[in-house]
């Protein structure tokens, strides 16, 4: 083989392996219009640009910095072309491409551990003229096994947690760390141990060289695993921070909504009282019959009502939800000792019970049978415990994840926060929340220790 063929094959092989892992990390991202055409043309362009780099690989690949610059250039070209295919922030694409690079290095190092061990045991001496063929078969079988293993152990979990894809500067630092450590370790080890090899690369007469090579390979694999775990942890923490920020926003909105609802209900009650007095006046003047007045009184009585729970905020909230239930044929049954909830901030209290009732309303609205359109809500104290219990019927099946029901809406990323926000508020006050299903009844239980 000429050096063009040798080093060109190295570049093409690297880009192919890198592309496989990049596809696994990128496939869930938002795609631009004409994505298939863009993807094909981008891959062609990347390989077309990568092949001439084989010349520089020959010139500078014998030095550490030369090899690092070659692979950094290939990484940069690939990342830039992903921007043409996906409608995502550059930070998100940089993270995914860095992770794909680390995975490629992970697979390569796993292969080297297996291959170098075989060389030390002289397992390949009998391959003869078929050496290159067997070498390639073994190489790609190990690569395929690494792809499958990496998908189930790491990639699937990381991509599943990137639903929001709002990555912060901390994720960027991890991405750069991933990129730096994989390129540096791979370049240094390959360069120096190639010079120490005899007959074939990664075959050593000196047992000490073999041990050092395997130690370096194992260290690289461990480093890759560590950065995968760090990246996954950082994504989870980032998502939790977003949820906390969203919860704070929801609580602020709840406080404003509470004040608006309070003012509206007070205004409605005043107007209803005025209307009743006017009806009495009209009946006294003989302008309306007692029966007509009674019918009108019954019609507006629903608006001239106020639920008494012992907590002003809950009075407003339950009254507001009761009006909605009355208009939609839903029976909202409440037994609430609201005075026991004074330890909670107004925004948290409104958000907790507002989300709790709204989730129940969403479930029972889908039920056609009137006798099953029921929501039971109870707050009671027992010894040093405060119990909040909610029950409602529902249609269909509920799946649970991490102890919470999974939203039934198609857009999983945009919904399902209500239950998580409930649990965050409960934990803020040292409580515990559980959810369960019995037949077609959903149960939600919250316990606060006071």
Number of helices: 12
* Span of the ends, CA to CA: 79 Å
Low-confidence stretches: 411-416
Number of domains: 2
Mean pLDDT: 80
Radius of gyration: 33 Å
Q: How are the elements arranged and paired?
A:
Blueprint: H1 3-26, H2 35-50, H3 53-60, H4 64-85, H5 90-120, H6 131-160, H7 169-196, H8 207-284, H9 290-301, H10 312-327, E1 331-336, H11 346-364, E2 374-382, E3 385-393, E4 400-401, E5 404-405, H12 417-428, E6 432-438, E7 441-449
Parallel strand pairs: 1-2
Antiparallel strand pairs: 2-3, 3-7, 4-5, 6-7
Explain this structure.
With 450 residues, the protein is an alpha+beta fold. The protein has two domains: 3-248, no CATH class; 307-449, Histidine kinase-like ATPase, C-terminal domain (Heat Shock Protein 90, 2-Layer Sandwich). Helix content is 66%, strand content 10%. The strands form two sheets. A five-stranded mixed beta sheet has the order 1-2-3-7-6. A two-stranded antiparallel sheet has the order 4-5. The longest helix is centred in the middle third of the chain and has 78 residues, at 207-284. The protein is elongated, with a radius of gyration of 33 Å. Residues 411-416 have low confidence and may be disordered.
